Design the sequence.
């Protein structure tokens, strides 16, 4: 008996250090993790149709992250009819799936739909998640993004980012006479909604932290100024009453203030505008162009760009404008800095030797690396988990204004997994929303 | 070349003749302007001598190419490009060019016609960015 116990113990400790399924999104590039995702069980024609649509959205989210691939369904050995069927792990190990998503969709008596799903670690033979979520039937797409967020989050240890929106500029027409409209879409390009009619040029949309508003720059009425649109009513209001033009707006992390550039007497400085009281505080005072301010997530520091030393470089200052220090020292010029919602990186656009780049550096300027380059790549915007960025690319265009298509992409902080967000028209200046749930 | 470097260089030059010579040097270093682009569509009206400008937007940033018959215009254009090239439309519209050229100590030495011509060029640059934003 003692001997048996001894052998059991030896056998147990001889196993390789058992680690549960985990992907490090900041690590070196790795092959996408194979996930088995059988059809979502559904028992009425209505739920079967919704289940198929939801499966497509969940699969698309996971695959587009670059971290997962779905194992070919023809290879599945076990048929899982419902979420309560116990997986035969040997069957899923045999087809080399590392994770298994098992789900079932039910219609509830009150008209809602309910998804029950389990996430299994196939090698450890352990359940990682067991969740039930419900919504009105027209909320199926959001529900699918939430399932994908939970799977992504459980396996990577990072917050998901699929149940989010992206504000952007929808572009049509010849490059010499471009029509630009403010628009929002889901993070995968679905549900595009146009917020302006294209009569006035609009640029640089930014979500408020509570997602109820978008600040943007527009030539409404011929005057270049910063406006805020209420997303519930589509009504826009001018921000403040200033003698000069305002541009490059962003909200403070608490959403109570707007930070932006104000040009008065031909000089651009950074100002903080309290949206409730209308009180405005000047934070920089320099003959150079100080612009593109972005708050650190704790609201204590601000990164901005300035040409005070010559070319445009990046600077960090305290939230009251004190303690200014330069953080970029490379060749070329730096623009559009944006602080990661995790606080660990600042993303920026860099122009060097006639090429555009999107890059990252630490908030003290250390560790600069360029993750995207092209003829024109610009406007990095962070996903709420701070692990993925959106940006836009423009192709070159000719003298007549033909070509020059703009498209929005996402990429992760490692510089891998660049993915197009498909849009009905050309699209630029993406601004990622916070997480919706 | 940056505005700060220009300021440092111009501040070393005390008399107008030296400044003028440096201005001409700057103009000579302007990027080549294709002859084919010297068309009426690219001509900047209101200038004493002939001036041409082409403009191109890349993403949200604006880039310009300027050519002129007169040495001094090329020099002024070179300085203008330091101030606007690669900028966004908002940044280009926010620049006070008069103040910048006054800081360099250049404006007071230009004849009124030259100053008007230069103002036309500045206006054309700002309009091009605005129309194509």
Sequence:
């Amino acid at each position: 008996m003692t001997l048996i116990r001894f052998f059991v113990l030896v056998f147990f400790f001889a196993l390789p250090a058992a680690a549960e399924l985990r992907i490090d999104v900041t690590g070196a590039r790795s092959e996408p993790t194979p996930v088995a995702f059988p059809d979502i069980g559904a028992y009425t024609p209505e739920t079967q149709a919704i289940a198929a649509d939801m499966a497509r959205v969940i699969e698309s989210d996971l695959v587009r992250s670059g971290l997962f691939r779905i194992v070919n369904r023809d290879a599945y050995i076990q048929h899982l009819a419902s979420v309560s069927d116990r997986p035969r792990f040997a069957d899923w190990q045999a087809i080399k799936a590392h994770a298994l998503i098992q789900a079932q969709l039910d219609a509830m008596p009150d008209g809602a739909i309910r998804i029950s799903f389990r996430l299994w670690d196939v090698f450890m033979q352990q359940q990682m998640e067991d969740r039930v979520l419900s919504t009105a039937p027209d909320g199926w797409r959001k529900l699918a993004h939430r399932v994908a967020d939970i799977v992504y989050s459980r396996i990577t240890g990072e917050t998901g980012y699929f149940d989010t929106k992206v504000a952007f500029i929808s572009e049509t027409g010849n490059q010499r006479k471009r029509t630009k409209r403010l628009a929002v879409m889901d993070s995968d390009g679905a549900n595009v909604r146009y917020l302006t009619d294209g009569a006035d040029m609009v640029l640089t949309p930014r979500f408020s932290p509570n997602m109820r508003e978008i600040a943007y720059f527009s030539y409404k009425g011929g005057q270049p100024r910063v406006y805020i649109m209420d997303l519930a009513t589509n009504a826009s209001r001018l921000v403040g009453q200033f003698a000069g033009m305002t541009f490059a707006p962003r909200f403070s992390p608490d959403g109570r203030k707007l930070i932006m550039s104000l040009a008065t007497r031909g000089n651009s400085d950074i100002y903080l505008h309290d949206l409730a009281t209308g009180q405005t505080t000047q934070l920089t005072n320099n003959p150079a162009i100080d612009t593109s301010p972005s708050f650190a997530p704790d609201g204590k520091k601000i990164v901005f760009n300035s040409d005070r030393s010559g070319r445009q470089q990046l600077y960090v200052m305290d939230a009251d404008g004190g303690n200014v220090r330069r953080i970029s020292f490379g060749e070329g010029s730096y623009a559009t800095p944006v602080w990661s919602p995790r606080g660990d990186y600042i993303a920026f656009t860099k122009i060097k030797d006639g090429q555009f780049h999107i890059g990252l550096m630490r908030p003290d300027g250390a560790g600069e690396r360029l993750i995207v380059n092209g003829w024109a790549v610009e406007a990095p915007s962070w996903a709420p988990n701070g692990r993925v960025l959106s940006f836009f690319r423009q192709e070159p265009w000719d003298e007549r204004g033909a070509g020059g298509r703009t498209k929005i992409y996402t990429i992760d902080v490692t510089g891998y997994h660049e993915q197009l967000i498909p849009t009905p028209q050309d699209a630029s200046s993406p601004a990622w929303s916070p997480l919706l749930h | 070349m940056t505005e700060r470097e220009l300021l440092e260089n111009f501040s070393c030059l005390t008399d107008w003749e030296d400044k003028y010579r440096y201005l001409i040097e700057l103009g000579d270093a302007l990027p080549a302007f294709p002859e084919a682009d010297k068309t009426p569509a690219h001509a900047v009206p209101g200038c004493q001598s002939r001036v041409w400008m082409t403009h191109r937007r890349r993403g949200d940033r604006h880039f310009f190419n300027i050519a002129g018959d007169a040495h001094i215009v090329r020099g002024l254009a070179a300085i203008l490009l330091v101030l606007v090239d690669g900028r966004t439309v908002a940044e280009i519209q926010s620049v006070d060019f008069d103040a910048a050229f006054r800081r360099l100590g250049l404006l007071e030495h230009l004849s009124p016609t030259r100053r008007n011509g230069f103002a036309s060029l500045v206006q054309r640059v700002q309009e091009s960015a605005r129309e194509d934003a």
